[in-house]
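Standup notes, protein team

Yesterday: finished cleaning the Thermohahella caldifontis set.
Today: HDOD domain-containing protein structure.
Blockers: none.

Input for HDOD domain-containing protein:
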Amino acid sequence: MSRFAPQTLDQWVEELSDMKAVSLGAVIQELNRLTASDETSLNELADAIMKDPGLTGKVLKAANSVAFNPQEIPVTTISRAIMHVGFDTVRALCVGALLAEQLLGPEASDQLVTRIAHAITAATQARKLCRGFRSQLREEVFVATLLYHLGELLVWSYPHPVVDRASRMLIEQNDVRAAEKVLGVRFAELSRTLAERWRLGQILEEALGQPASKAARAVRLGEDIARALPQGLDSPAMKACITEACKVLGLDERTVTEGIREGIQEAESLGRSYGDARLNAVLGQQTRSHMTPKTGQGKLLEPDSSLQLKILQDIMQAMSTGMTSTELFRHVLDGLHRGVGLERICLALLNPQRTQLAARIVVGEGTETWKTRFVFPYERQRGSFWYDIMQTPGIVWLGHPDHVRLEGAVPPALRALIGPGQGLMGPLVTQGREIGLLYADLRSSGRPLNQAYAGGFRYFVQQANLCLNLMAQRASRA
């Protein structure tokens, strides 16, 4: 650290380049080079990551999280992580882990922790807006948004009394320009210069300038949404963000709104993988502030055939450009909830030994405890309720005359959990091997199921199985 704080753009760039932060730019450049080349092998990318033990640990932790690995298949090496979630997603995980490794620590100021939490939130929000983007472009948007305030983050990590004074001024006066005057540099200009000098990506450079492409505008929109979140999901600022996202990206309002809620939860999940208690606290408080039950507080959900069709088309488009099983499951649950109108939904998957069936993703009011209570032993023999469900062609409609035998075999623990009434179950099978099931009902409102709900449920179960089999075929050829 210099005895005198930098006071111009050039001085800040030179000083930051002498800090450990320069390794951040170097590693990101290398990741960009490797993931941009069609000739890069899995081992080359793995070797680049494993040069940094701290980075390796954080990437493996994220790759083993429910957000990226709902089937809980143990991922113990970087090579397996790349195979499981894909090149582009691993790159995105690396950049987030690099930020955490380089900037977070016991000496990090509260201002820095808060701004990193903002960057993670903005990045997850931007990625949620990229429905229909190919996988590589979606993750490039995520990385660009994560690095959008790189200059500011590096300044707050710079140990100097002048930086401390600027930080106090920002907290007390909420005046970014006044803090920038003390520091002698505009944060946006510093970020733009570092992005160009460290070659951090074309989308980031465009977003920091005059964004014209949908990808660069998605970066800006993710940033705007993160900035509007403290004002509330129903605030005028957030409504303006939603309107702009619909206009720029061709999305409908319900899709954007649900994506914002999903992004809030994903930001907290991703933040946990970085292992910083203060970061976890900021993101956790954000989730608690905004994630409140909605079902039953307004209009009842009803089947929407046009939205179902759109989500099914989105799934097939995403499949053509590359999609992970986690992304597929989230699309399917989104379709079942918003498109089909089902109120409570659970994705339950078998463990690798196929001895236990457990909830991995749940949606709807009253499902808060399902992740810990929807856990059942699985026996591969006839007469076992769960095995018989898996062997049933199509779907099972509990409470319907066609499925009286299975209705009578419902385990008492399951009945106690879901309550009385009708429900739908659909087995998930890949290349003849059962992997889990989908469950859904209307028990929040107490309404009966009908053919419209059952038909929509059947379509999404069929689509999920089709995509899972396509993924398995691609993996076997890789």
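Follow-up from PR in the comments: The radius of gyration is 24 Å.
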